[in-house]
Amino acid sequence: MDKSAIRRHMALAVAVLTASGLLSLAGPGTATAEAAALCSGRKVRTLPFSTGSVQIYKKRGYVCALTLPKKEGTRTYMSVSVRAWRARPAVNKGLFRHHAGPVTAHVGHRRVLVKGMVGSASVSSGWIRL
Q1: How far apart are CA 71 and CA 87, in angstroms?
Q2: pLDDT tens-place string over residues 22-49
Q3: Radius of gyration of the chain (CA)
Q4: Does the global pTM surpass 0.90?
Q5: Domain parsing of the chain, residue ranges
Q6: pLDDT band at 130; cut points 50, 70, 90
């Protein structure tokens, strides 16, 4: 191969990589990708409610949770909390545009209580083992 052919192949590879990167950023499911970037571990549960959802992730004895509203962009009161059995809750609450949290708590093998709120609607997991 001569130098011009190598340059054409390199230009094509750069164009394909750039296009795939732009499509992955602008494609559907951006909120899910953002949530996965905020909490490490595997997603174990989603708690939906009328104005949003709480996503729960677990990794090596730690639980991470965040609240996502159905309508992003407007400042709304949101909260999220994670509480291990016989421990104080980890809480994040206030006026947010995109999400409340993430909050992380070490739960080990104990039961955990996860709560989330967007506006006046809320959800609670009850005491569960993850």
Answers
A1: 33
A2: 445 444 444 555 566 789 999 999 999 9
A3: 20
A4: no
A5: 1-33, 39-124
A6: confident
62-94 exposure pattern, b = at least 16 Cβ within 10 A, e = fewer: bbbbbbbbeeeeeebebbbbbbbeeeeebebee
Question: CB-based contacts of 93: which residues, under 8 Å, 6+ apart?
Answer: 77, 78, 79, 80, 81, 100, 117
- Rounded alpha-carbon distances, angstroms, from residue 6 to 1, 2, 16, 17: 7, 7, 15, 17
Enter the tokens of residue 119: 């506006």
At 38-83, the pLDDT tens digits run 899 999 999 999 999 999 999 999 999 999 999 999 999 999 999 9
Q: Does 39-124 carry CATH code 2.30.24?
A: no
